[in-house]
Every structure is written in structure tokens, then in C-alpha cells.
Amino acid sequence: MPYAKLSEYVERLTNPQRSDTFVKQLRNAVREGDIDAADLPERFELPKEFKRRGSEDSYRKTARDMVIEVTPAVEEWFANVNREMASGRRGAAPKPTLENIQAGVVDFKALAEETRRKMGASFDKGQALGKSRAKQSKPAPKRASKK
User: Fold this and answer.
1) What is the DSSP letter of 87?
2) Domain residue limits at 121
3) 12: helix, coil or strand?
4) In sequence order, what are the residues at sequence separation of 6 or more whose Cβ sits closer than 8 angstroms to the Cβ of residue 35?
5) Where is the composition biased (Basic residues) (predicted)?
6) Which of 5, 111, 119, 132 is deepest in the core (most CB within 10 A)?
């Protein structure tokens, strides 16, 4: 039976910035019994660079290495996970910046229609609020005080 290390699989990833996610997914697959693997005492450095908040420096994390039994099912699992992670984050819509609008990444007409709808709703809400305040009962007339 051929065996491979987790660090070797991490080196084969097409998107090294997602290596921490890959390690988590592999550990989940081992826990669920989909993949046969065993922990090794050594550690390896993940290729992902993490940035510290409020600072320019970056650092890397380490992970415990594992030995994995290489089977066609494991290779297929790796290919699927690698393909999913290479496509980038899912569902993140591009921000409506001038550059994205000029590049055609964001649909300007749809953005303008949404803005028009929001402004109309805000205007209508203000008009309704003004009307409801005008309808409220007028303050009671002041009584003449006894002297």
C-alpha cells in the first residue's frame, strides 16, 4: 500500500492560501471515516500567510503532519476538494466600486434601479411619518389659571 504525507498533499494544492481549510476538511474526513490516516509527531508549515490586524507583518501557522493511505477514493476526494477550493470563495458578490462598474463586473443599470427603489422607499416612509404626525391631536388649549 502506498502512503503519502499530509504536507505532500498541501504542496499539491492549486491555491496555497486555502491550505488551512484543506487541513480542516481532511481532518473531518478522517474523523468521519472517509479517509484512513494517522498522526505523525512532526509538524510542517502551512504555505498560507496570515496578516496581523493593524500591522503590515505576516506569519505562518504550523500543522501536525499525518500519513495518509493513498487509494483511488482518496485521490478522487483530493481532486474534488482541490477543485472546489481553487474556484475561490463562494457567494461573495463584487463590491460596487468605480473600477468594478467600469470593468463591467457590476451591472450599473441594476445598481441604479436598486438605488432608485431605496430612495423612493425612504421618501415614502418620510411622507407617511409626516402625515401621521400631522394627524395627531392638537395640544389641548391652556386653561386660565385661578388667581
Assistant:
1) T
2) 98-134
3) coil
4) 26, 29, 68, 69, 73, 74, 77
5) 132-147
6) 5
Q: Answer whether residue 145 shows pLDDT above 80.
A: no
Give residue-wise pLDDT tens across range 3-12: 999 999 999 9
Residue 15 lies in a domain: yes
Answer yes or no: is 17 within a domain.
Answer: yes
Cβ proximity of 21 and 84 under 8 Å = no
Pairing type for strands 58-59 and 50-51 reads antiparallel
- Look up the pTM and report it: 0.57
32: in domain: yes
Residue appearing with cell numbers 415614502: 124
Of all residues in the chain, what percent are helix, strand and coil, respectively (each to 5)?
A: 50, 15, 35
71 shares a domain with 10: yes
Specify whether the CB–CB gap between 43 and 62 falls below 8 A: yes
Counting Cα atoms < 13 Å in the Cβ hemisphere of 143 gives 3
Tell me what the mean pLDDT of segment 48-60 comes to: 86
